[in-house]
Amino acid sequence: MRKTSLGILLLALLLLVTACGGVASTSTGTQNANNSVKDQQGPAENVNNEQAGDADAAEPTKEPEEPKEVAYKVGDKFNLGNWEVVLDSFEFNQKVSDEYFSSSADEGNKFLILNYTVTNEGTEADNFTSMIGGVEMKALFQDKYEYTYTITMIDKDLSKESIKPLSSKTGFVVMEVPDTVAKSEDGLILKLAKDKAKATINLR
After folding, report:
1. Are strands 109-120 and 145-150 parallel, antiparallel or unpaired?
2. Which residues, 6 or more positions from 101, have their beta carbon under 8 angstroms from its beta carbon?
3. Terminus of the chain with fewer CB atoms < 10 Å: N or C?
4. Is 75 helix (H, G, I), strand (E, B) or coil?
Protein backbone atom coordinates (compact mmCIF):
# COMPACT_ATOMS: atom_id res chain seq x y z
CA MET A 1 0.00 0.00 0.00
CA ARG A 2 2.85 2.35 0.83
CA LYS A 3 4.52 1.49 -2.45
CA THR A 4 1.36 2.32 -4.34
CA SER A 5 1.02 5.70 -2.57
CA LEU A 6 4.68 6.48 -3.23
CA GLY A 7 4.28 5.67 -6.91
CA ILE A 8 1.26 7.92 -7.20
CA LEU A 9 3.15 10.74 -5.48
CA LEU A 10 6.11 10.43 -7.84
CA LEU A 11 3.81 10.39 -10.85
CA ALA A 12 2.05 13.57 -9.67
CA LEU A 13 5.40 15.27 -9.07
CA LEU A 14 6.58 14.31 -12.57
CA LEU A 15 3.42 15.71 -14.16
CA LEU A 16 3.85 18.97 -12.22
CA VAL A 17 7.46 19.40 -13.36
CA THR A 18 6.48 18.67 -16.97
CA ALA A 19 3.66 21.22 -16.87
CA CYS A 20 5.94 23.95 -15.50
CA GLY A 21 8.46 23.24 -18.20
CA GLY A 22 5.80 23.66 -20.87
CA VAL A 23 4.71 27.00 -19.50
CA ALA A 24 8.32 28.28 -19.43
CA SER A 25 8.86 27.13 -23.01
CA THR A 26 5.66 28.84 -24.13
CA SER A 27 6.70 32.10 -22.41
CA THR A 28 10.15 31.98 -23.98
CA GLY A 29 8.64 31.33 -27.39
CA THR A 30 6.31 34.31 -27.02
CA GLN A 31 9.21 36.61 -26.10
CA ASN A 32 11.23 35.38 -29.06
CA ALA A 33 8.27 36.01 -31.36
CA ASN A 34 7.87 39.58 -30.01
CA ASN A 35 11.58 40.30 -30.48
CA SER A 36 11.33 38.96 -34.02
CA VAL A 37 8.45 41.36 -34.77
CA LYS A 38 10.45 44.31 -33.35
CA ASP A 39 13.44 43.40 -35.49
CA GLN A 40 11.22 43.37 -38.54
CA GLN A 41 9.82 46.82 -37.66
CA GLY A 42 13.27 48.36 -37.09
CA PRO A 43 14.38 48.65 -40.75
CA ALA A 44 11.04 50.20 -41.77
CA GLU A 45 11.43 52.88 -39.10
CA ASN A 46 15.01 53.52 -40.22
CA VAL A 47 13.83 53.96 -43.81
CA ASN A 48 11.23 56.51 -42.69
CA ASN A 49 13.85 58.41 -40.68
CA GLU A 50 16.25 58.43 -43.64
CA GLN A 51 13.51 59.73 -45.93
CA ALA A 52 12.72 62.53 -43.49
CA GLY A 53 16.42 63.40 -43.30
CA ASP A 54 16.68 63.49 -47.10
CA ALA A 55 13.65 65.80 -47.27
CA ASP A 56 15.29 68.20 -44.81
CA ALA A 57 18.55 68.13 -46.75
CA ALA A 58 16.74 68.82 -50.02
CA GLU A 59 15.33 72.18 -48.82
CA PRO A 60 17.19 74.95 -50.72
CA THR A 61 19.08 77.61 -48.78
CA LYS A 62 17.52 81.04 -49.33
CA GLU A 63 19.94 83.68 -50.58
CA PRO A 64 19.65 87.13 -48.94
CA GLU A 65 17.66 89.43 -51.19
CA GLU A 66 19.38 92.36 -52.81
CA PRO A 67 17.92 95.73 -51.94
CA LYS A 68 15.51 96.82 -54.66
CA GLU A 69 16.43 99.88 -56.73
CA VAL A 70 13.55 102.35 -56.62
CA ALA A 71 12.88 104.96 -59.36
CA TYR A 72 12.04 108.53 -58.30
CA LYS A 73 11.31 111.80 -60.08
CA VAL A 74 12.52 115.35 -59.53
CA GLY A 75 11.18 116.66 -56.20
CA ASP A 76 10.79 113.24 -54.54
CA LYS A 77 12.33 112.70 -51.11
CA PHE A 78 14.09 109.40 -50.44
CA ASN A 79 16.76 107.82 -48.24
CA LEU A 80 20.11 106.56 -49.48
CA GLY A 81 22.27 105.05 -46.77
CA ASN A 82 22.59 107.71 -44.06
CA TRP A 83 21.33 110.45 -46.38
CA GLU A 84 17.90 111.93 -46.94
CA VAL A 85 17.92 113.22 -50.51
CA VAL A 86 15.78 115.54 -52.65
CA LEU A 87 16.72 116.54 -56.20
CA ASP A 88 15.06 119.95 -56.31
CA SER A 89 15.79 120.74 -59.98
CA PHE A 90 18.33 120.39 -62.79
CA GLU A 91 19.52 122.47 -65.74
CA PHE A 92 22.13 122.58 -68.49
CA ASN A 93 24.53 125.51 -68.57
CA GLN A 94 27.89 126.43 -70.02
CA LYS A 95 29.34 127.37 -66.63
CA VAL A 96 28.83 127.50 -62.87
CA SER A 97 30.12 130.39 -60.78
CA ASP A 98 29.97 132.16 -57.43
CA GLU A 99 31.21 135.55 -56.22
CA TYR A 100 34.86 134.62 -56.60
CA PHE A 101 35.23 131.66 -58.94
CA SER A 102 33.84 130.38 -62.23
CA SER A 103 34.13 127.01 -63.93
CA SER A 104 33.21 126.43 -67.59
CA ALA A 105 32.54 123.26 -69.56
CA ASP A 106 34.78 122.45 -72.51
CA GLU A 107 33.75 123.58 -75.98
CA GLY A 108 30.99 121.36 -77.33
CA ASN A 109 29.93 120.38 -73.82
CA LYS A 110 27.51 121.61 -71.16
CA PHE A 111 27.32 121.21 -67.42
CA LEU A 112 24.37 119.20 -66.15
CA ILE A 113 23.75 121.06 -62.89
CA LEU A 114 21.87 119.00 -60.27
CA ASN A 115 20.43 121.05 -57.41
CA TYR A 116 20.00 118.97 -54.23
CA THR A 117 18.84 119.36 -50.66
CA VAL A 118 20.45 116.63 -48.52
CA THR A 119 20.31 115.78 -44.82
CA ASN A 120 23.00 113.82 -42.99
CA GLU A 121 21.19 111.26 -40.81
CA GLY A 122 24.43 109.59 -39.73
CA THR A 123 26.31 110.14 -36.47
CA GLU A 124 29.41 111.78 -37.99
CA ALA A 125 30.06 114.75 -40.26
CA ASP A 126 30.30 113.66 -43.89
CA ASN A 127 30.38 114.87 -47.50
CA PHE A 128 27.48 113.95 -49.75
CA THR A 129 29.81 113.58 -52.75
CA SER A 130 33.60 113.35 -52.65
CA MET A 131 36.51 111.74 -54.46
CA ILE A 132 36.60 108.92 -51.89
CA GLY A 133 33.71 107.48 -49.88
CA GLY A 134 30.88 109.73 -51.03
CA VAL A 135 27.66 108.84 -52.81
CA GLU A 136 28.32 107.26 -56.20
CA MET A 137 26.45 109.10 -58.94
CA LYS A 138 26.29 108.89 -62.72
CA ALA A 139 24.02 110.09 -65.52
CA LEU A 140 22.89 107.49 -68.03
CA PHE A 141 21.86 108.69 -71.50
CA GLN A 142 19.86 106.35 -73.78
CA ASP A 143 20.59 103.54 -71.28
CA LYS A 144 24.20 103.18 -72.48
CA TYR A 145 26.22 106.43 -72.29
CA GLU A 146 27.54 107.17 -68.77
CA TYR A 147 28.75 110.45 -67.27
CA THR A 148 30.12 110.98 -63.74
CA TYR A 149 30.24 114.13 -61.66
CA THR A 150 32.99 116.76 -61.66
CA ILE A 151 34.31 118.38 -58.49
CA THR A 152 34.65 122.18 -58.67
CA MET A 153 35.89 124.89 -56.29
CA ILE A 154 32.62 126.78 -56.58
CA ASP A 155 30.74 127.67 -53.40
CA LYS A 156 27.85 125.27 -52.66
CA ASP A 157 29.43 122.41 -54.62
CA LEU A 158 28.34 119.53 -52.37
CA SER A 159 31.68 117.80 -52.96
CA LYS A 160 33.39 120.40 -50.75
CA GLU A 161 30.61 120.76 -48.15
CA SER A 162 31.08 118.79 -44.93
CA ILE A 163 27.65 118.29 -43.38
CA LYS A 164 27.19 117.71 -39.64
CA PRO A 165 24.89 114.97 -38.28
CA LEU A 166 21.18 115.85 -38.59
CA SER A 167 22.08 119.00 -40.58
CA SER A 168 20.83 119.82 -44.09
CA LYS A 169 22.54 121.54 -47.01
CA THR A 170 21.30 122.85 -50.34
CA GLY A 171 23.89 122.75 -53.08
CA PHE A 172 24.73 121.30 -56.46
CA VAL A 173 26.60 118.53 -58.24
CA VAL A 174 27.80 119.05 -61.82
CA MET A 175 28.37 116.58 -64.65
CA GLU A 176 29.95 117.56 -67.94
CA VAL A 177 28.02 116.11 -70.90
CA PRO A 178 28.11 116.67 -74.68
CA ASP A 179 25.80 119.25 -76.25
CA THR A 180 24.04 116.32 -77.93
CA VAL A 181 22.87 115.06 -74.54
CA ALA A 182 21.79 118.53 -73.42
CA LYS A 183 19.75 119.18 -76.56
CA SER A 184 18.25 115.71 -76.96
CA GLU A 185 14.84 114.69 -75.65
CA ASP A 186 15.91 111.06 -75.27
CA GLY A 187 15.91 109.29 -71.93
CA LEU A 188 18.25 110.62 -69.24
CA ILE A 189 18.39 109.15 -65.75
CA LEU A 190 20.54 109.44 -62.64
CA LYS A 191 21.92 106.40 -60.82
CA LEU A 192 22.88 106.87 -57.17
CA ALA A 193 24.43 104.32 -54.82
CA LYS A 194 25.74 104.34 -51.25
CA ASP A 195 27.00 101.09 -49.75
CA LYS A 196 24.24 98.60 -50.73
CA ALA A 197 21.50 101.21 -51.17
CA LYS A 198 20.58 102.26 -54.71
CA ALA A 199 18.20 104.77 -56.31
CA THR A 200 17.26 106.01 -59.76
CA ILE A 201 15.96 109.48 -60.61
CA ASN A 202 14.23 109.99 -63.97
CA LEU A 203 15.25 113.36 -65.43
CA ARG A 204 13.37 112.99 -68.71
Report:
1. unpaired
2. 152, 153, 154, 155
3. N
4. coil
* Torsion of the alpha carbons at 182, 186, 187 and 192, rounded to the nearest 10: -20
CB 85 within 8 A of CB 78: yes
How many angstroms separate the CA atoms of 72 and 198, rounded?
11
**Where does 44-196 show beta strands of DSSP type E?**
70-73, 77-80, 83-93, 95-97, 102-104, 109-120, 126-127, 136-141, 145-150, 162-163, 168-178, 188-194
Between CA 84 and CA 168 the distance in angstroms is 9
Instruction: Tell me if residue 196 falls in helix, strand or coil.
Output: coil
Q: What is the pLDDT of residues 43-91, one digit of tens each?
A: 445 545 555 555 455 566 666 565 566 789 999 999 999 999 999 999 9
CATH class as words, domain 70-202: mainly beta
- Domain borders along the chain are 1-59, 70-202
